[in-house]
Sequence to fold (230 residues):
Amino acid sequence: MTEQNDTQGSSQESSQAKAGAIIVPVTLFEQNCTIIWDEPGKKAVVIDPGGDVPKILDAIKQTGVTVEKIWLTHGHIDHVGGAAELRDALKVPIEGPHKADKFLLDNVVESGARFGMTGVRNFAPDRWLEEGDTVSIGGLQFDILHCPGHSPGSVVFFNKELRFAHVGDVLFAGSVGRTDLPGGSHATLIDSIKTKLLPLGDDVGFICGHGAGSSIGQERMTNPFITGEM
Fold:
């Protein structure tokens, strides 16, 4: 997996790479909307299009990929605000999150209004995701881990072959997702991290919903929310 944060720069992936990714920071929350694609087919997925859809579409064009799906890690406005608009623009299905976040997707407009986000719409995904499900894009297959705590329906996408995960707002570099929002639970979140993410292996790298990515091993050793709870 090769990764690039600056969508204006030249692509870093090689023809030998199995996958590539770019991060497109969107909205005032600087949420990591992520485009992941397989090689050499250039079939792609957009994960968590939180807003700024024209910016996402421009990144897709620059990268030269064909987006076939939209995946959602959870239902908070900064991760789903642009999902309905992007689905209409690309004519592709939305997969995720877990159905426990339905109450959030039913209230996207209300949530957006609190942050001055206009043009957002309530919606339902084309497929809810459950623990043990798999999703795929091109030749890439990801296992679904249901990891509640930050939100009741948060899911993580994990590719065993690439030793890579997209963890949304479950885990961050040096921190964990906030749990003071409706449906949040710190104890549940820590349990999700300990029972679902840490067992994946220290060599697993991840992209998260905000800020820089990390690895399971790095967070196991240094993340105070994990080391203090173990």
About this structure: Confidence is low (pLDDT under 50) at residues 6-16. Residues 33 and 134 are 21 Å apart (CA to CA). The chain has one domain: 19-227. The longest strand covers residues 19-26.
